[in-house]
């Protein structure tokens, strides 16, 4: 096991790489620990949850709702959870988002940590302290920023991860490469999905690289006032289409990244849209879909990065170099109409 302590503005998060879920007992006192997972993982790993206090939420994005939150709070009360309780989210991005939010509001805040079980959770969703819920089709409209005390990486969970979820997670890996690291972009391009599935050392190094890239951005701008916004590359369009068209997060982000790359070509003379498209398709990700541009534009205008008729759109100057570009919605409307 490889451990690193990463300091944020108010506390540090302990990262346990190449660990095992069995290490939980060494991190959290058993009498304080309450596990939170989804129905899929609860059925898949009965040994992990046996004889442990566990809250189970529905699998999928629909769980990020107030009705599911209310039920989870009632379960915490039934379990007699107090301010010394420690909530551990075991699952993918939905579980980590939900766990962090629940821990942040229950009795004005209890301790929490994560054991991410998907590629997306390991390289992105569990990192950085963003936690929240959806309001209907509007993604992450209610939330807070609060860092977990630990993130434990047990790669054995990936043995049961469906292929589609591997693909889903690689959208965020490609995002990190596109905005932060030319060398990572070239490294991913030199391999294929099965390489990472079949070679544990290659995968472990890839996850670690992505964690450190994201951590570096979050440490510099934890509350997303400036540079952290670049981590939203592809997400402005993605959040408008994901719930509306029932897409996986990775598929929505991939479509959003290619759209942003083409917008970058128009506004910033970015000339590598085709390179990005080839890499996304190499990892079996979509780059286009048909959608109602009027409806999508309306949803985009609810984005958290909007300001008086503009949005801070994350564009690319080059591969590995992003720019936050204040973009008028009239320009986006015209560009959407051309797609």
Topology record:
Layout: E1 2-7, E2 12-17, H1 24-27, E3 33-38, H2 39-44, H3 46-49, E4 54-57, H4 66-78, E5 86-91, H5 93-105, E6 111-116, H6 119-125, E7 130-135, E8 138-145, E9 150-152, H7 163-180, H8 182-189, H9 193-198, H10 200-220, H11 235-241, H12 249-268, H13 273-282, H14 293-300, E10 306-307, E11 310-318, E12 321-328, H15 329-338
Parallel strand pairs: 2-9, 3-4, 3-5, 5-6
Antiparallel strand pairs: 1-2, 7-8, 10-11, 11-12
Description:
- Strand 11 and strand 12 form a beta hairpin.
- The model has no long low-confidence stretch (mean pLDDT 97).
- The chain has two domains: 2-160, 3-Layer(aba) Sandwich (Rossmann fold), CATH 3.40.50.1970; 163-196 and 221-338, Up-down Bundle (Dehydroquinate synthase-like, alpha domain).
- Helix 7 runs antiparallel to helix 8 (182-189) and helix 7 runs parallel beside helix 12 (249-268).
- The chain is α/β, with parallel strands linked by helices and 339 residues long.
- The longest helix is centred in the middle third of the chain and has 21 residues, at 200-220.
- The chain contains 15 helices and twelve strands.
- The strands form four sheets. The protein has a four-stranded parallel β-sheet. The protein has a three-stranded mixed β-sheet with strand order 1-2-9, covered by helices on one side. Strands 10-11-12 form a three-stranded antiparallel β-sheet.
- The chain has helices at residues 24-27, 39-44, 46-49, 66-78, 93-105, 119-125, 163-180, 182-189, 193-198, 200-220, 235-241, 249-268, 273-282, 293-300, 329-338; strands spanning 2-7, 12-17, 33-38, 54-57, 86-91, 111-116, 130-135, 138-145, 150-152, 306-307, 310-318, 321-328.
């Amino acid at each position: 096991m490889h451990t690193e302590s990463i300091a944020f503005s108010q506390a540090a998060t302990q990262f346990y790489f190449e660990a095992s879920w069995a290490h939980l007992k060494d991190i959290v006192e058993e009498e304080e620990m309450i596990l939170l997972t989804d129905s899929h993982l609860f059925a898949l790993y009965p040994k992990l949850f046996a004889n442990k206090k566990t809250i189970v939420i529905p699998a999928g994005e629909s769980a990020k709702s107030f009705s599911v939150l209310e039920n989870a709070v009632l379960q915490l009360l039934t379990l007699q959870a107090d301010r010394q309780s420690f909530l551990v989210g075991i699952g993918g991005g939905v579980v980590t988002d939900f766990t962090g939010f629940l821990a942040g509001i229950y009795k004005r805040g209890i301790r929490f940590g994560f054991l991410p079980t998907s590629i997306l959770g390991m390289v992105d969703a569990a990192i950085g302290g963003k936690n929240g819920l959806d309001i209907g089709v509007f993604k992450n409209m209610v939330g807070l920023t609060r860092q977990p005390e630990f993130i434990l990486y047990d790669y054995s969970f990936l043995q049961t991860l469906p292929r589609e979820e591997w693909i889903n997670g690689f959208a965020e890996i490609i995002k990190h490469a596109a905005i932060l690291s030319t060398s990572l972009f070239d490294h991913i391009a030199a391999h294929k999905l099965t390489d990472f599935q079949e070679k544990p050392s290659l995968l472990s190094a890839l996850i670690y690289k992505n964690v450190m890239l994201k951590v570096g951005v979050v440490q510099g701008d934890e509350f997303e006032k400036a540079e952290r916004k670049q981590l939203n590359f592809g997400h402005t369009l993605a959040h408008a289409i994901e719930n509306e068209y029932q897409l996986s997060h990775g598929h929505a982000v991939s479509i959003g990244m290619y759209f942003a790359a083409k917008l970058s070509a128009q506004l910033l003379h970015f000339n590598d849209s085709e390179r990005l498209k080839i890499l996304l398709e190499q990892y079996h990700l979509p780059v286009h879909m048909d959608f109602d541009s009027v409806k999508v534009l309306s949803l985009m205008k609810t984005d958290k990065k909007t300001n008086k008729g503009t949005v801070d759109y994350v564009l690319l100057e080059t591969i590995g170099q992003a720019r936050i570009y204040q973009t008028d919605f009239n320009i986006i409307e015209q560009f959407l109409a051309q797609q």
